[in-house]
Design brief:
Protein name: UDP-N-acetylglucosamine/UDP-glucose/GDP-mannose transporter
Radius of gyration: 21 Å
Membrane topology: Multi-pass membrane protein
Helix content: over 70%
InterPro entries: Sugar_P_trans_dom (IPR004853), TPT_transporter (IPR050186)
Keywords: Membrane, Transmembrane, Transmembrane helix
Strand content: under 5%
Shape: globular
Number of helices: 14
Subcellular location: Membrane
């Protein structure tokens, strides 16, 4: 076996990595604002039904694209269920808890507590993907978490249910990101297949759950369905739900689960400070503002170190991998990852 056959596939270009990260940051920012408008400003009673609308949009858009040969992904068969598990469970958990926490919390506190996603992603990548991280990145994560704790400790609008939802959302987001990266590399489903079959598998159980809990009835009986502005915001939220999920998969495909979490932290800098002045549900205190600032500063430092280290490590890691491959090849063994 030749040395060329043992090499890893070439890394994606820097422009693809940066563009996918910027696309995710923009999509995440916009959907947070739109969801906040639908659930808080208009007081739409069912975050679960809003999630269902986003799933339906995902199915319709991707199926239409597949029929028109704009995109391609595997046709459904029984093997899909084994290939994609446990992503559908993580997907619906992420969707539902994210919408619930958006409704319960102010924008600044929502974005602060979302910082725990980075820590959880790092832990999962260590245990699931067997990655290691340098100390300065770990210290940056500690700064982010400490800032989040300081800010949350003085939250004058403390909501136990909201905090529970957001921490669950952090866990689901971290697990979903890590397993998405794993599935994209292992199963051959592709970006569009992961999105489509996630939504297809979970939409019926989610509909049943919404009907059983009464959420579906509340959504259908909502008084603002006749208002054009609400319908417009609702449809935008549904479409942005698809765009967000696509941007997450795209960012994970070209980068890593941890990079996706880092990009989310960068986006939260803008969302948190804008939320102080708009939205009407932020109760100001200096302790809270200090915690926000520590948290955001740690996020920026962490982001800089992550992207900077990625570029500086590439040459040395490439040489090390080539040395490992040559050694193993000379002994007639398979290539190491």
């Amino acid at each position: 076996m030749s040395v060329e056959a043992c090499r890893e596939p070439a890394e994606h270009s820097a422009i693809l990595k940066f563009s996918s990260a910027l696309f995710y940051a923009s999509s995440s920012f916009l959907i947070t604002v739109v969801n906040k408008t639908v659930l808080t400003s208009y007081r739409f009673p069912s975050y679960l039904c809003l999630g269902i609308g986003q799933m339906i949009t995902t199915l319709v858009v991707l199926y239409a694209a597949k029929i028109s040969n704009t995109v391609q992904f595997q046709d459904f068969d029984r093997s899909i269920l084994f290939k994609i598990f446990p992503l559908p469970l993580l997907y619906v958990g992420n969707h539902v808890t994210g919408l619930a926490s958006t409704k319960k919390l102010s924008l600044p506190m929502f974005t602060v507590l979302r910082k725990f996603t980075i820590l959880m992603t790092m832990v999962l990548e260590v245990y699931i993907l067997r990655k290691t991280f340098p100390k300065h990145l770990v210290y940056s994560v500690v700064a982010i978490v400490c800032g989040a704790i300081v800010a949350a400790s003085s939250d004058l609008a403390f909501d136990v249910e909201g905090y529970t939802f957001i921490l669950l959302n952090d866990a689901f987001t971290a697990a979903s990101g890590v397993y998405t990266k794993k599935k994209l590399g292992d199963q051959g489903l592709g970006k569009y297949g992961v999105l489509f079959y996630n939504a297809l598998i979970i939409i019926i159980p989610t509909l049943m759950a919404s009907a059983f809990t009464g959420d579906l009835h509340k959504a259908l009986a909502f008084k603002d369905w006749m208002k054009a502005t609400f319908v417009f915001c609702f449809l935008i939220s549904c479409f942005m739900g698809f765009v967000l999920m696509y941007s997450i998969v795209l960012c994970s495909y070209y980068n890593s689960a941890l990079t996706t979490a880092v990009v989310g932290a960068i986006k939260n800098v803008a969302v948190a400070y804008i939320g102080i002045f708009v939205g009407g549900d932020y109760l100001f205190s200096w302790t809270n503002f200090l915690g926000l600032s520590i948290c955001m500063s740690g996020g920026l430092v962490y982001s800089y170190l992550t992207f900077n280290n990625k570029s500086s490590r590439s040459n040395s890691e490439g040489l090390q991998e080539l040395k490992i491959h040559v050694t193993e090849d000379s002994k007639g063994k398979f290539c190491a990852n």
